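Justification of computing resources. Each target in the renewal requires a structure prediction run like the one illustrated here; the chain below, 189 residues long, is used simply to show the kind of job we budget for.
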Amino acid sequence: MEAYDGGRSAIHRVQLISAVHESRTLEQIFASYRASNEFTPPTGTRDGAKIEMAAQAGEENFFLFGLTAQQVADSRGWYNPQWHYEHEPETREALDLISSDYFSRNEPGVFEPLRDALLTHDYYMHLADLKSYIEADERLLALYTNPYEWARKAILNVASSGKFSIDRTIAEYAADIWNIQPCRVPEKA
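Resulting structure tokens:
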């Protein structure tokens, strides 16, 4: 049995199916697939650890997308996910494809609650980030066609990742977030 990969393989399969549905060229589809199975310069929303990582490696070496944490906070009072469905063809196509039973032929309607939740209670503003994600993915695919730049960004990201060791992260969380102190464990005699 394969180890759980955080859903990456399922996400990449959906991306490949979507790419075929979008009539991308075969070369673009394979470039996306190859990119998913090698080190990929990080892609992520503009919050949390991605901001720290981008500061270390340089934002130009990341594929950041979407709203900042401050923009999300500022939008809470007026955000309307339905607007994105009505005004962004990419968002409409994605939600319509999901709810069309294309991915669930044996379980019709299984994704309808997901669609309804995104259109009515999109607390994390996923729909606000979708168009920006697609643009980031297109930049990632374009980069993949330039092996030198791909390798350069990959190396810079790996070389800049030392600060993010698990020991430092846990110590920082313990002190700054959990407000706990280290506890010595007595050695066995």
